[in-house]
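Forgive a beginner's question, but would it be possible to get a protein, spelled out as residues, together with the matching structure tokens, please?
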Amino acid sequence: MARSLNQEPKKKKPVQPSQENPWLEGIKTVATAAILAFGIRTFVAEARYIPSSSMEPTLQINDRLIIEKLSYHFQEPKRGDVVVFNPTAALEARDFHDAFIKRVIGLPGETVQVKGGHVYVNNQKLSEKYIAEDPNYDYGPVTVPPGEYLVLGDNRNNSYDSHYWGYVPKEKIIGKAFVRFWPFNRLGSLDTEPLYPSQK
């Protein structure tokens, strides 16, 4: 039988989307957040706290910092950078397993010496307004190997650093201390003023 011209064809019933289990949705959300957080912490930045006095007065015990991890993929550490690094082979041999935080003083190929209460790099005395007190020890002269860095704590006379155990290979460096976010009264970046002779 012929169909009338104004007769509408029967419409199909719309398919209803299936309702996903809310528990499954929650698990997916948490898993996604965890993956993102892990990715950011592994490759971009992470929070760290200061457990010792070796970086006083710049960093106090229980200060909270953001450590950024990207810049050293594109540039070399600079003198004055405060860096977090995994224990070197020399430190692991002495049963140290936690990360350290120190200031970069000697760059690859430079000669470093501590004498008369001052640090010298390539025979130039560093102007170090941030240290707790002048170092009361003599060290060097030593030449920093290629691809490695000499690091010292700002609390020079109470810091277990390169003058005890040697140099930090670049691959051991986790990242650069970027900003202090706790306590609030000392919130901000670290040492923004130039403190050193010009670097070539």
Summary: The longest helix spans residues 22-43. The chain has one domain: 48-189. The helical segments are 22-43, 89-93, 162-165. The first strand starts at residue 45 and ends at 49.
